[in-house]
Amino acid sequence: MESEATTDGASIEALEAVGRAAHLVDSASRIAVLTGAGISTDSGIPDFRGPDGIWTKNPEAEKASDIRYYVSDPGIRRQRWALRASGELWPDVAPNSGHRALVHLEQRGLVHTLVTQNVDGLHQAAGSDPDSIVEIHGTTRQAMCLDCEWRDDIEVVLERVRAGDDDPHCGVCGGLLKSATVSFGQSLFPGDVERIEQAAISCDLVLAVGTSLSVYPVAAMVPLAVRHGAGVVIVNGEPTAMDDLADVLVLGSISEVLGIVVGSA
């Protein structure tokens, strides 16, 4: 790693780190982007385990993300559907400048694959090509049946909830419905691990944004890419578990620095 920087104002060290990161981006031709919760916090979406995280403030909320509790406890399901139907979970969220910066990077023809740990759908909302995105933990924008292959826009289910169906079941097979996210105890969606491994093997640069790089298997992208000769740029608000693998580490506000790194600001 060349150096670390903090963006406390316009420090020379910070600007130098951003400049080196921008140079690596400009020199690349196939970038694998990996994003985590940090890119969406400026859109008003809190992380889960940070000081102001959803689970930190309300440990009981973590149960709703465990498939065992979700399947066995109708009360948890009803509460979750009610929150989604009311809009209280993520009210009026929209992409921020960090998401838009990655759209610009794609428009430059440099994004090979965009892997996100987020389930908010904000990359698509910002304009990133859905075909280039791997939502490794699924999406809250869709609903799915736990028993059959039914899947649709989550608004289809939320309309039923608002009409009084507080624990909706699949209209095709009668199975339980949930958001199309990967809960604790569920397997990742078929093919996604293979896509992220292929992205790591074939890229010439990994750009990790807003992720602690501590959640597997997605974090394994970084060492796998390094073993195949790729460079690594990490942009994050705090140190990560893989800072030692970074060619350049930029610590600071993602919304402020990412646009400079990718050439959109």
Q: Under CATH, the topology of the largest domain is which? A: Rossmann fold
What kind of sheet is the major sheet? 6 strands, parallel
Helix % is 25-40%
Query: What integer value in Å does the Rg equal?
Result: 19 Å
Task: Compile the SSE list and pairings.
Blueprint: H1 12-27, E1 31-35, H2 54-57, H3 67-72, H4 74-86, H5 97-107, E2 111-116, H6 122-126, E3 133-135, E4 138-145, E5 151-153, H7 154-162, E6 177-181, H8 192-202, E7 205-209, H9 221-227, E8 231-236, E9 248-251, H10 254-262
Parallel strand pairs: 1-2, 1-7, 2-3, 7-8, 8-9
Antiparallel strand pairs: 4-5, 4-6
Helix pairs in contact: 1-10, 4-7, 5-10, 8-9
Folded structure, characterized:
This protein is 34% helix and 17% strand. It has 265 residues and is an alpha/beta fold. The chain folds into two domains: 167 residues, TPP-binding domain (Rossmann fold), CATH 3.40.50; 83 residues, 2-Layer Sandwich (SIR2/SIRT2 'Small Domain'). The chain is elongated, with a radius of gyration of 19 Å. The N terminus is likely disordered.
Structure at a glance:
The chain has 265 residues and is α/β, with parallel strands linked by helices.
Task: Provide the descriptors you would attach to this structure in a database record.
265 residues, alpha/beta, Rossmann fold, SIR2/SIRT2 'Small Domain', 2 domains, six-stranded parallel beta sheet, three-stranded antiparallel beta sheet, disordered N terminus
